[in-house]
């Protein structure tokens, strides 16, 4: 047997064709070529020429070589299908992530056009994708892929009853609606003190953006109250924050909306992962160098609408808008 695997070449494929034509078994062909029998099995199965006319069906060395060469085109399935490559580029420009594109293709177009998200990333960062600048369309537009880092810890004294460890299990496992996460999105100081509160409903991943003139806690809580008070009580039961001082007036939500507030442990923003994930999506359209004073409330709402109308893998590729809308319809029907 050969030391180390090497792809079959045209000469070996001609040898396989000649031996198979004389009625030799796969074991005999493998022994003659000093190849493993599985290599021969795969070769005969994968590189069969299929034709409408039975007389032209079978294993032919030049046709087998052509099919094998096509599979080894750099970029794989996407590079071999210009229509698929164009579709992926179009969806990336519509702010879909590679995982969302892969999931949608698998769900709606079947196995013929299904690709995994890793294949899409390899295409984006490969020669063809780089020549089109597709990396700029990714959720986090980096020239190369690198790991992320947690943000710095923030301090705030939280009563024991409001720590995340006291949060009921139904909130952690997302078994019911009405449990939110909140965070503050800060922008460059030279543009003033304006910021955004991002709110995410844990089960549906529905996102709300609220503009704040400053980081004062009373104003931040007032904005949250304004945006959530129109929801049915069952859809505004609790909210989870980090320990930033902007959330110090959390008791306001308990008095005004009967919402219980919970807080992450120090240096553990991942405990409110839904809103952290949503913030990353929002930053695609509102990066840290955005001047909020130049944006109208309608433009900010358009960002939230775009996020809420994008399919999510965690929702089986439904949109947050659809999931929360279905729950509101059920509540109204009771």
TrEMBL record:
GO cellular component: cytosol
Domain of life (superkingdom): Bacteria
Any one GO BP annotation for this protein: DNA recombination
Coiled-coil ranges from the UniProt annotation: none
Pfam families linked to this entry: HTH_38 (PF13936)
Keyword Amino-acid biosynthesis: no
Keywords: DNA recombination
Domain Integrase catalytic positions: 164-328
Record-level Gene Ontology MF annotations: nucleic acid binding; transposase activity
Entry protein name: IS30 family, transposase
